[in-house]
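Re: export button greyed out
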Amino acid sequence: MGLPAPEEAILSRRDDIIAGLKSFLPKETILDSLTSMRAYDADGLSSYRQVPLAVVLPTTIQQVASVMKWCKDNQVKIVPRGAGTSLSGGATPLADGILLSLAKFNQIMDIDYENRCVVAQPGVTNLAITHAVEDAGFYYAPDPSSQIACSIGGNIAENSGGVHCLKYGLTTNNVLAVQIVTIEGEIIRIGGKHLDSGSLDLLGVLTGSEGLLGVVTEVTVRILRKPSTQRAMLVGFESALDAGKAVSDVISAGIIPAGMEMMDNPAIRAAEDFVNVGYPRDAGALLIVELDGPKVEVDFLLQSVEAIMQKAGANSVRLSQSEQERIDFWAGRKAAFPAVGRISPDYLCMDGTIPRKALPEMLVKMASLSQQYGLRVANVFHAGDGNLHPLILFDANVDGDLQRAEAFGADILRHCVKLGGVLTGEHGVGIEKRDLMGEMFNEVDLKQQQRLKCAFDPQHLLNPGKVFPQLHRCAELGRMHVHHGRLPHPDLPRF
Amino acid sequence: MQSFYPEKIENLQEIIANAVADKTALKIEGAATLDAVGHPVMAQYSVNMHKCRGIIDYDPAELVLVVRAGTPLIEIEAMLASENQFLAFEPPHFNKLFDNKSTSTSQTIGGVVGAGLAGSRRVSAGSARDYLLGFTAVSGRAEVFKSGSRVMKNVTGYDLSKLMSGSFGTLAIMDEITLKVLPAPEIVNSCVIAASDLKSAQQIISQVFASPVEASGGVVLPEKSALAVSLDIGNHAAAIIRIEGIQVSVTDRINQIKSMMPTTQEIHILENTESRNLWRSVCDCLPLADAEQIWRISVPPSKGPALFDAVSRSTEISGFLDWAGGLVWIAGNNKELHQIIRSQIAFHGGGHATLFKADISLRSTLSVFQPLPAALHALEMRVRNAFDPCQILNPMRTQPSIEI
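Workaround output, generated via the alternate export path:
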């Protein structure tokens, strides 16, 4: 893991580059002193810090377009940044690139209840969209744990998820349109308040492209009417294996809860000690199951789910009896990361996904890796969709501990892929998982993805060093290697 | 036209490699049901995917299905039904609309996903794009590549599934397709509410979709289209709202809809089979089954009625509105219909119109797909070039034109 070595030629031009930017941007949109840039030297993957060449904070779309075009003409790299909450280093700056912050684009442009959508600038936080429409009974469904801080533009870049993805999907399933600025400085609108594209689904591929294809300057998302009833169930199990079986039983019974979360014993204890909401401290695993919809439906399904849980060997079952109690049930889960932060000086949060049925095998492997590396691990898990968040506990002040934690994490992700899963379910590849991409994709797969990159940014100026372990020149990727006459099946006719 | 019938992905790769080497175009087909959608493809050879078929893996508890592209849709639907599951995007069956005599078999899943289709549930559950978790394909560079996975939460690398869905086989030929499946609803009922015009019918639907009732479909049928599916509504238009799920919930939610309407408003309830049949007909566009020229138009839902009315003031049309008003189907005979529709889309705040069914001469002369602004067009051409640089696969079929 690490950032590409900076280009000396760019670093030595730093003064000229800043002067160049200042020639067409208002003074207050550029930060270039070391002190002012410190605040931007890392995102949520805070073990990696780098002060950028300069920080640019444009206030108009035209300024964004001018910055992009100027950087392209002058071969200067750009790292886009929303709120800087990426857990994979998506917004980790480059020493030889500018950091382009969209933080000043913080306005909601249009709320359209008739068509059930909101148009927002990219720096608006995820939660602010819900806040803007909740008085009318609406909300924006994707709810990453960082929703109070993370920006909607960043959500597009990372295709952010949350605890309610099982029923309501990720960002990609809830976005209608974006306006992007390309590296050429062109302003392009993709989508609208209508559904689908009349042509290729470029919106779908921009979502989750981690800032490598374009800079998002406006977003249109769908909003949903709040369900009339939401109730949660807290279920304690002897072991994570029993809990995992119960999760499969619920889905096999044809029930798709709004959310279905699991925590293992170390995570339960940490959370309970932190928020004190009555989690069963001795349980081997805890499930939080939330159902939403009309009251009669929720009540009916809760009975079915409770019966399934009892049959699967639940030790304790509690149903939320009030809205406050439902929020309390979630409080420990939502605070799981900071809670773990209290019991360990540092932790690494991993993000693999596995087929749900592979959970027992994964847990056994994790326990053995924990022993092998001599590091503790606490698990929170979006159990409904198989998305694991092992939290590896370490102490950055102990020599080699960070490297051991990273190696442990990489082994977990390799095992996820081996079990038929993936490297990242919702946090993105960034720099964190970049070097593991070869575990999941072969060279041909990766080259095809990079050809898409070349269609948007042929000189690799947008967020280089992220996602791809090795960057190929676009000219090389475009070349065709076809050999006449090499026909293993001569029975097939030639043209 | 000579056809190839590959059985393995290696055959497929070889066929494309030879086509690239000889600079020969290939027409890609499953059951060829949608053969008449898009610009005519000029190719000497076709690749028929029928032998690339079969279920590779189906695990109901994981909600994941892996199939080969040539597998018939009806076979997949029957298998899912036996486990009380379904394809939530409700793929339309367009055999009847196109009355495709050359095919007695069902559409293939590759065709359904490749065309990016979805039925009335698009508005509540999403489209084929939202359920395609991953795929293996051969690109127009004759390279076998994969994207996505078999799990339902994945952001590893670019989401190429989105590009494949709706690309009509112009980027790559998919072989293995992984789809998310969901539990099928137990009860499917509908409320039929008569209205004096399209706008008020759409507003009823809009009101229900803005409530916590969780409708899974909303269609506005003008009287003529209603009669075409044997529904006598006794007024100029009807709003039909689908409510599905478990019995207690369906009953409760239909009562909620009743309580939203004025007490004088009559609400007719269609139960299970009757209701399911109606939605099948709507999804499959059967109200327009006899039409020669059909347009499929996506606009903001609130703009659907105004667009339909504006077009009908210019020329005689029939049609209906699905997706809570956002999907407008229009049939007519006017040779200038494309201009009337596209200028009305621009006037009503944007969207896109596809000439979905027409004879070959019209499809050869008109822009079948919505013309794109120049910068977006250039970007899209570069994306196409990244997958099929020699334009071997279904050349010109979905070629967009530039907006003037």
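Residues 401-418 of chain A form the longest helix (18 residues). The button fix ships in the next patch.
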